[in-house]
Amino acid sequence: NVNWWSSAEKLGEYKVRLNLKKEFPAALEFLSGPIVMYPNDYYSKVGPEGMALKPVGTGPYAVTSVEPGKRYRFKKYDGHHSGSPKGKANIGNVVFRTIAESNTQLAELFSGGIDWIWKVKPDQAERIKSQGEFTVKNSSTMRIGYLNFDAMGRHSKNPMNDVRVRKAIAHAIDREGIVKNLVQGESIVVNSLCFPSQFGCTQDVPKYDYNPEKAKKLLAEAGYPNGFETPFLAYRNRDYAEAMINNLNAIGIKTKFEYLKYAAFRDKVQEGASPFNFGTWGSYSINDVSAITSHFQSGGKDDYSKDPEVIKQLGIGDTNVDPQVRKDAYKAALSRISEEVFMFPLWSYNTWYAFSKDVE
């Protein structure tokens, strides 16, 4: 996302000036993460397809061959800039393979066909551990799950317009139980619409414990003593979604569940066609609240509340260069999002890795 700058000027062989549309204190976070640099002379000739088949970048490895959908071969690049934060390559040659089927990945790992795999399923991680021949590790990621509610009625007049219903749902979801039994690993329950390490993220906001009886009481106060039926969308982690559906059934809320591909899910949400959905966001690993809270709550296509106060506070946080002013503004925004349950944060995600003991 580079919509925060207006132009760029080349000042020298290794120097460039970015002219921003307005003050954007998270600029260095964005520049050091998902934004990549391509050599203009080469890219202008070969375009996206040529770059995909024979990429040229700034990393410690050079691509030697590409088999689309199957494998990339890399070799150590001795001319890599020694001052790079990426560090120096320690392995001479690397082959990156795409193996879609998880059981095939395991078979290859066990037979020595591959040395390292990631995004291993929790039950498979336990199976690999039991072999005693591999290192298995788990690490938290910046991705969090959330429930998004049609608080302002973009979809239609519906129960989610009532804050008591949104609070009831928050109390109905057994986040701790789902993390313990399904998500597992180093994942944690999150109470704020951000990942704890991100600049400006505070967990000091109104919280909602698992309390089905309180949830039923709130539904009755909102005029739904017998519950109601609602559409419910998701695009990943079907088992997590089904666990939450069971939680909702327990307080009388029935769901018309629709499990979609991400593109279809995103389109429905951005068109305002979803009163209630389960999604996730990884912030592109940008360690700043502006990469998540501002994405969902600043009045854009994904914003189902469009709350003026939240938009105002996020605007201050996104553009003020004083760190304390930013923190105060983000805390005000996050507290209001939680108080009104415009969105309900669920848990962080994690990734399992398994690799040969020859790999350090």
What does this structure look like?
This protein is an alpha+beta fold. It has 3 domains: 1-34, no CATH class; 36-98, D-Maltodextrin-Binding Protein, domain 2 (3-Layer(aba) Sandwich), CATH 3.40.190; 141-352, Dipeptide-binding Protein, domain 3, CATH 3.10.105. 34% of the residues lie in helices and 24% in strands. The protein has 12 helices and 11 strands. The chain has a 6-stranded mixed sheet, with helices on both faces. A hairpin with a 3-residue loop joins strand 3 and strand 4 (71-76). The longest helix has 18 residues, at 323-340. It is globular, with a radius of gyration of 23 Å.
Note the quaternary state here: single chain
**Largest sheet, if any?**
6 strands, mixed
State the separation between the terminal residues, measured CA to CA: 34 Å
Helix share bin:
25-40%
